[in-house]
Design a protein that fits this description.
- The structure holds two protein chains of two kinds.
- By secondary structure, chain A is α/β, with parallel strands linked by helices.
- Chain A has four helices and seven strands.
- Chain A has a single domain, classed as 2-Layer Sandwich (Transcription Regulator spoIIAA).
- Helices cover 41% and strands 21% of the residues of chain A.
- In chain A, the strands form two sheets. Chain A has a five-stranded mixed beta sheet with strand order 1-2-4-6-7. Chain A has a two-stranded parallel ribbon with strand order 3-5.
- In chain A, helix 1 packs parallel to helix 2.
- The longest helix of chain A has 14 residues.
- Classes of the chains: A alpha/beta, B alpha+beta.
- The interface between A and B is medium-sized, with 24 and 25 residues.
Chain lengths: 114, 130
């Protein structure tokens, strides 16, 4: 389901691989990313450029991933379209996740922070 | 629609295409959220005695609004989301569950629930917000 790419600074870019991240696929998405975290990934960018919609289950999966990483690393999001961005705001998730325009901006910010 | 999680997204997309024109922009987005959350809540949590019983959704175009009527599947225990929803401000920022019902109340312009001839019905009304 997910697509991944790793930068030369070990930042993992994850694309959910679905147009709608909802109750039907949020658990599978979370489980796949948790496997990568368990295997050692700790700097993650979730790239939503191909996601047009997410519901509360999709948001729940993201908070689950953030908790899984904990203080061992960081998780940021990028590529949010207007609707996904609005969903983050309605659920107050814009206060929880750092968001960037695209994966290049997210990777640059994470590199500068480390 | 079948009472199955895989049926939710296709149903919501079909309904969205049906109301496109009557609702647009942010109202269509709120419609998407509410229908996705309401149907997921029914499929995942409705305590029905017959899982094969379908979920019926009706769209009603009115003068200045559009409403959807979602009928509980046959045998489901009555569940009024207005009594159960938690305000989004009160939910732990890192909670993985519990936002769906609050989203419906925040995004629909009016929420009603109660008995109808076809069974218990959740009625969600949407207006274009200027």
């Amino acid at each position: 389901m997910i697509f991944t790419d790793t930068t030369d600074t070990d930042i993992l870019i994850v694309r959910p691989g679905v147009e709608r991240l909802t109750a039907v696929n949020a658990k599978a998405f979370k489980d796949e990313v948790i496997t990568l975290i368990t295997e050692g990934a700790s700097q993650l960018v979730i790239d939503f450029k191909d996601v047009s919609f997410l519901d509360s289950s999709g948001l729940g999966a993201l908070t689950g991933l953030l908790k899984k990483i904990g203080h061992r690393g960081d998780l940021v999001v990028c590529g949010l379209n207007d609707d996904v961005q609005q969903m983050f705001k309605i659920c107050r998730m814009d206060r929880v996740f750092k968001s960037y325009s695209d994966s290049a901006a997210a990777v640059q910010a994470m590199n500068e922070a480390s | 629609m079948p009472n199955q999680i895989e049926a939710i997204d296709p149903m919501v997309l079909t309904l969205k295409s049906h109301v496109d024109g009557a609702l647009s922009g942010e109202a269509l987005f709120r419609f998407d959220i509410c229908l996705s959350e309401a149907l997921a809540n029914l499929v995942l949590h409705a305590e029905t005695t017959d899982k094969s019983a379908p979920i019926t959704v009706k769209i009603r175009h009115e003068a200045e609004s559009l409403s959807t009527e979602i009928f509980d599947p046959k045998g489901a225990v009555a569940f009024d989301i207005r009594d159960k929803a938690r305000a989004l401000d009160e939910i732990d920022a890192l909670a993985e569950n519990g936002r769906g019902l609050g989203l419906i109340l925040e995004c629909a312009d009016q929420v009603d629930y109660g008995p109808a001839p076809e069974g218990n019905r959740l009625k969600l009304t949407f207006k274009a917000r200027g």
